What we know:
globular; 52% helix; 2 strands
Amino acid sequence: MVVLVEPNVGTDLQSWAEEALTAFKVRMTDPDSPFPCIFGVEAVVRGTLRYAFLDSAVDQAQQLARMAGRLLHLAQRQHV
């Protein structure tokens, strides 16, 4: 499974990925234990981060390279 999660785009995630994403967002925005990176917290709050989930049973380097290409395409599309 290679999934790129974008803001405001519906994605069918496996339950473990959904739980990991929720836990990450909760940790990043916890007012009782603030995350030290202001820019990261703001990106989570604004919904501007992208998240990639890779299949652990497949060549992760190849999956990561493919995901990097997709992210580059998104970045180029946004700056046209």
